[in-house]
Amino acid sequence: MYAKSKICLDLEYSVFESDGLWSLPDEELLELARREIVELGLVRGEEVEDGTVVRMPKAYPMYGMSSTGQIVVLRSWLDRNLVNLQPLGRNGMHKYNSQDHSMMTGLCAARNILGAEHDLWAINTGADYQEEPHGR
Fold it and tell me: Has residue 26 been placed in a domain?
């Protein structure tokens, strides 16, 4: 069971392993995250109880011939076992999302927590969406 009075926030910083942010000590990263979510008005500083840093080198999703079937299995398991989870972004959904689509899943997830019923998996599913190659 989960506590309705608590939420989990995921702050993702996209960096290269050579960037200074990547090598900051965990406590400094956690303080940065705390400061930023307070500045955004998402929480008050005293409401943050804990934090964890996970560094994921080269975390860009990779797709193979069986990826679609594996994602179906993952989604089905999540739907049955973690009904209050709002997966979003490239790593949370294991699918390609541009930054605008990742932000949209985050906004819709927040609205879901407030009572909406957005299908996060339906964001960025149009077959006609494709980013333009560089130079065009």
Answer: yes
Please give the Cα distance from 123 to 120 (Å, whole number): 6
Task: List the one residue out of 22, 46, 21 whose CA is nearest residue 34.
Answer: 46
Structure-block tokens of residue 117:
């019923």
In angstroms, the CA 59 to CA 20 distance is 18
CB atoms within 10 A of CB 102: 19
Contact 56, 91 (CB under 8 A): yes
* Alpha carbon distance, N-terminus to C-terminus of the chain: 51
Do 18 and 38 lie in one domain? The reply is yes
Q: Could you read off the pLDDT of 68-127 as tens digits, one per residue?
A: 788 888 889 988 998 888 888 777 787 777 778 888 888 999 899 889 999 998 887 654
